[in-house]
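Internal ticket #5521
Category: modeling
Description: The requester needs a full-assembly model to guide mutagenesis choices. All entity lines are attached below as received. Residue total reported by intake: 958.
Assigned to: D.W.
Attached entities:
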Amino acid sequence: MEMKRENHKGKALNLLRSRVCDPKFAFKALYNSPESNYSKLKFMISSSVTEACNNSILLLGPRGSGKISVLELVIRDLLDEYPDSISVIRLSGLLHGDDISAFKEIARQLCMEHQLLFSKSASFDDNSQFMVAMLKECGLAHKTVIFVLDEFDLFAQGKQRLLYSLLDAMQSVTSQAVVVGISCRLDADQLLEKRVRSRFSHRKLLFMPPSMEDSQSLLVHMLTIPVDSSFPRDYAIEFNRKVQNIVEDKRFKETFSNYLNFDSSVKHLLKFLFCAISHMDLKTGFLSLENFKTAFSSINRQPKLECLRNSSILELYILVCMKRLEVKEKSFCNFNSVMKEYKSIHDSFQTSDYYDRNVCLRAFEHLINRELICFADNRGHSLSVEYRPVKLLISSAELNQGLRAYHSCPAILQKLMDREG
Amino acid sequence: MNSEEAAQIPRRTTRSLASSSASTSNNASSAKVNSLEPLTVNDLLVGGDPISLDELFSNFPGRSSQILEIVSLLGPLNTPMLPLFVYGGASTGKTSIILQLFRHLNRPLVYSSCRTCYNQRILFESILNQLHLHRKSSANGYSNAKRCERPSDFINFLKEALTDAINNLKEKSEKLISGKTMAQGGIGNMIYLVFDNFQLVREWDKSSTLLPFLFNLYDLLKIPEVGLIFISNTSPDTFYSSNMGYVEPIPVYFPDYTDADLRKILSRNQADSKLYSSFLDVALRSFFRVTRQVDELSTAFKPLYEKYCEPLRDKRVFPNGDKDKDMKRKLFSHINPHITSSLNEIFKVSSHPSAEVENSKEANLKVNQRKLERREEIAKLDFHMSTSAKYLLISAFLASRNPATLDASLFDSKGGSDNRKRKRKPSEKVPERKESLEEELLMKGPGSFPLERLLAIFQCIVSVAEDSSDEDKQSGELMSDVLLQLSSLCNAKFIFKGRSCPIEGSVRYRSTVSEDLALKVARSLKFPLSSYLYKRT
């Protein structure tokens, strides 16, 4: 019995994790209303399929707002409805940004779809002609080809030959295709050349991150486990009740709004949920407020301050020296000038931390590795580290905060910083 | 880690070797390598004996919270996960903990380090080789499983390979279940891709598309059975520079060790833990102010500890046990003067090849008076160079340090003392200008010079040297093969050869040698270098 109980907890955890890792689950819940982008997009594409016409649509919105997931949902539904009259070609600007590989990939996917033999050595022209011919054939067979162009803005770099030949082929009566561009640049259509833009129908769907209330109800939806035969009834009810309690807790609301304040996209929310779920205690088998707090603190990091906390005292000295040089508005700063400053601090305050040049150079290199400082230019590889100009990558406020948080920071450093402050 | 265990644990290098050359690094596998059996899915496991979570905690002091965090993020067997981004400073145990954790979990992983796979193609091919369970051998002409250069090809190959591998795993786990073994004994059907040293990718060609591609890999693949783990030295915010965005992976942070952690780590493997901890009481506090990296500290402490123990070994003045405090005090007074001096040498050690260090350390132990020894050290060069190369090095150094306008006055064909006087005159007259010049030198580093100037100076100093030494060498012997010597000095990075200057059209050179080294070389030739240096007064 005990063993079985443990099993349920593991199963619940597994269910929640799979939900979070599959963005479609979240977006399906989010876009259920008839007003939503999901229904609009579905209407647009399905009408092009049924009416056998050409269409082009842009899906715009910030990263992680579910453009691709919603499109995938729509395509899945349409494939169920019209299994024989749709084929989907998926491209990503990250992978097929150049025309050659784009046409090659289109040809490959068309061949896969229609059980044709794909030739790896086919030339650019072969592939583009093949695509046009295939579009024609598909049009004659009343089959709609849906082109999904992820990272659409990247296709607009260069000569835009792919977009042109795609949209140009769609001008003919026989073809039957839908081009769906997906981009997080809201000005993506402005990037198009004139000849391409004039062939593009300017349908745009804007994806906005959900409101606070929507996010919260999404969270509840994601974390609620079904009360049916898959879990013991009392466990499921108790689990859902606890989730509800957490959500209504004032402290949770505070954490949650803090978290969403700087990025309220769904993907960002999912990340938070994933962390919280991962920290679920399998002994009790319930989520707790503590899980969400841990998740919040482990995602919300302050890398620069962490770096400062990791630095040794000598490294802090070097940072403070550099900051002083920066305040003095020395336009040019390298290891030698830092050492000069370091020496002058030592001369005037007689600090106990005065080390050899070699040692300081190593500490300086550590700072470069930590990326608290970096070389000011990429030129000058001919010079050794001591001479290359460097700049600080940390603000004085951060440095001040870091010094104050450092548990054994020498008082002199804070004094020096305050004087500059 | 105690030594026995360390032998069994596949180290980072062996692990990456294991994936390409397929030697699982436990003892039984040595025979396997020779017979070259075809690889199985089991070769994607880390290998070695199973290790418990408690052992992991004790092997990695101060890391238990990180280990637990990663365990919970990876989740139980067969659960999907979002990509992780493990980051933290050098030598904080990121890679070894991930690898040991997978040994504990007994799940398949594909490990590739972006340091050994130093460009896009090699990285792609290494991942595909591992997934295809492909081993380079003479039979296949040491070729890769797939030739793959572009991300667009890679993603197709990867999808294919992953689906195959995952189906393979699923079959296996079904067999296990039908064979009525415990489900927990299986290796599951997740495959984890680990990208180590991920920060290096930023410097690769095409990194502006490769980075977002790799960060978006999980979304592009759409295979829930894949886990991605990125390991990086630098924090996530240092990856922002590319203008392409991506949804950030989940950060897992490894902070540097605190001094308490460092004590625990350093006193592992010590025969006399009590003695070592009293040594750490003395040494760690001051070293901790300089560096907090375990690797640097342990190399610095090794010779120092030997020194610390010296009075114990040599004199046998301490009877066992009783006068504990007294002994500590004596040892402290013995070691204390060494600490400050070795503090300033802390990083010298690690920059030398280890064998050489050992030798010089042995030499150090024999000679006790440090000052004397140091002078000796300066006098001798630790590498061999031909005489003409030495002269060439010095002339390059001079050409980089001295302003070209002073060459005529410094290297009069007669050489000797009178031009030294001439040289001093301007520097005494305008000390402010000289100071600003010196400052400029400090800032800008060594100057560059054309080949002609180098050769002219070289000729001058060689002739001076030959005149003064009066040895009956044939003149011109030193002048032969100068260009050859120059090119080998360039290859050894003593002299930097720049690209040709667009205006003058000639190649410019720059000396990269520090003043100390130049002085050493000059001393070995008995050449009065300082009298030719402009900034010296």
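Resolution: model delivered.
Comment from assignee: Residues 305-420 of chain A form a domain with the Arc Repressor Mutant, subunit A fold (CATH 1.10.10.10).
Ticket closed.
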